[in-house]
Specification:
By secondary structure, the protein is α/β, with parallel strands linked by helices. The chain is about 30% helix and about 15% strand. The protein has eleven helices and twelve strands. Strands 7-8-9-6-5-4-3-2-1-10-11-12 form a twelve-stranded mixed β-sheet, with helices on one face. Helix 6 crosses helix 8. The mean pLDDT is about 90. Keywords: 4Fe-4S, GTP-binding, Iron, Iron-sulfur, Lyase, Metal-binding, Molybdenum cofactor biosynthesis, Nucleotide-binding, S-adenosyl-L-methionine.
Length: about 325
């Protein structure tokens, strides 16, 4: 599939739930969240029908997202089933790591191709403040277990919040020094509660890292499905990367679509609304489904409009980050 700007679309980010076991301050309010009812969330069979249909049209890569995908009890089974679909080459997942120690072995057995773990600080008290309910030790145990069982392509994602201190940057980056994992610093996007929150730029983080660890050498190979730019540091087992959608716009290379937990197809993270695929998925109407998908992709914008203060009115957890 190609959009109107001749970009090939071969990657889908699939949210399997809008629920999460954390309440991160830049993502969700402390109270008052209204989650989807069970019947509104895409079922196991609906998801498989969707991915099988997308695979016939050139989708090769699937990222399982949420909310927190491991709060859904059939996520591992979904990964295993999606891996068996003809045409699908890679299935990866993004997680907050709270339940990772419990599921690491099962994810390995399901032949997961990669995992992103969100860690915004290595200070237990600050972690509790950011997440409101989380325990850092559970996430670190999950990361340790992921390395132990040999999950491939492990990445740590850190949101470049304005409060991120130099010492915190050093410590998080050091995870890639002592472990065969990659650490990425992600620019805070103005979506939901993230609007108006101060953030650090890629240049800010870059300068801090070079002051402690020396020159960052560009690493030209791709290390996954996404748009991160990676760098090597002397003595590091893994790489350090940056995902900077606003400061270093990468829309010209965008190859993805998003599916929300209730079956809405979004062609761009910033866009409000989207195409509702739920009816076609419930009835398994492949002709209607393809018609809706093709029509939506032709309306995919050339680039995001965050700088024009536009964006989806929903929270990131409701979109599928």
């Amino acid at each position: 599939m190609k959009d109107s700007f001749n970009r090939e679309i071969d990657y889908v980010r699939l949210s399997v739930t809008d629920r999460c076991d954390l309440r991160c301050t830049y993502c969700m309010p402390a109270t008052g969240m209204r989650f989807l009812k069970k019947e509104a969330v895409l079922s196991f069979d609906e998801i498989l029908f969707l991915i099988k249909t997308l695979a016939t049209q050139g989708i090769k890569k699937v990222k399982i997202t949420g909310g927190e995908p491991l709060t859904r009890n059939d996520t591992v089974a979904l990964i295993k089933a999606i891996k068996e679909i003809k045409g699908i080459e890679k299935v990866t997942i993004t997680t907050n790591g709270i339940q990772l120690a419990k599921y690491a072995n099962a994810l390995k057995e399901a032949k997961l191709d990669g995992i992103n773990i969100s860690i915004d600080t290595l200070d237990p008290e600050e972690f509790r403040t950011i997440t409101r309910v989380g325990e850092l030790k559970r996430v670190l145990s999950g990361l340790e277990k992921a390395v132990e069982v040999g999950l491939p392509n492990i990445k740590v994602n850190t949101v470049s919040r304005g409060e991120l201190t130099e010492e915190a940057i050093y410590k998080i980056a050091a995870l890639a020094k002592t472990n065969p994992i990659h650490v990425r610093f992600i620019e805070l996007m103005p979506i939901g509660l993230g609007k108006g929150c101060p953030g650090k730029t890629q240049e800010d983080i870059f300068s801090v890292l070079e002051s402690r660890y020396g020159k960052l050498d560009p690493f030209e190979q791709r290390l996954g499905n996404g748009p991160a730019s990676y760098y090597s540091l002397a003595g590091f087992k893994g790489k350090v990367g940056f995902i900077s959608a606003i400061g270093h716009c990468f829309c010209a290379q965008c190859d993805r679509i998003r599916i929300t937990a209730d079956g809405c197809l979004k062609t761009c993270l910033h866009m409000d609304g989207g195409c509702d695929l739920k009816a076609a998925l419930q009835t398994k109407d492949e002709e209607l489904l393809l018609q809706q998908i093709f029509s939506a992709i032709q309306q995919k914008p050339e680039k995001h409009h965050f700088l024009e203060n536009q964006g989806d009115s929903r929270l990131m957890s409701q979109i599928g980050g």
